[in-house]
Design brief:
Layout: E1 2-11, H1 23-26, H2 32-39, H3 45-66, H4 74-80, E2 81-86, E3 89-94, E4 105-113, E5 117-126
Antiparallel strand pairs: 1-5, 2-3, 4-5
Helix pairs in contact: 2-3
Amino acid sequence: MILGIGVDTIEIERFALWHTYSQKKLSRIFSPQEIEYCLQQLHKSAERFAARFAAREALFKALSYTQPNHSLPFLTLCSRISIAKMNSRPYIVINNDIGIDLSGIVFHLSLSHSCTHATAFIVIERQIF
């Protein structure tokens, strides 16, 4: 059963200088693993930061549908999740408790970008056994 969906599109240009930000500033939003990945290839850093930021926005929107009475501040959510890749597929890692029962919950994530925009789409699903 689908519990929530979220989508976000963001301009990559907004992230053009993020590779110059301090580790401390970046770590307010991204995990150390994400920062390392985004900075591996500086010519791709803006699109990588943008896609991961869009994923956080999309997740925030999807969670607001699943938990309308639970308010989780956006920056708190940012600090508790990470976007990782396995076999070229992105997925969400919940690093800390976000105050929501996640048993039986699956997050489906898709990231995409063009030359100018990055988009993230998330579906939150409860698996029924």
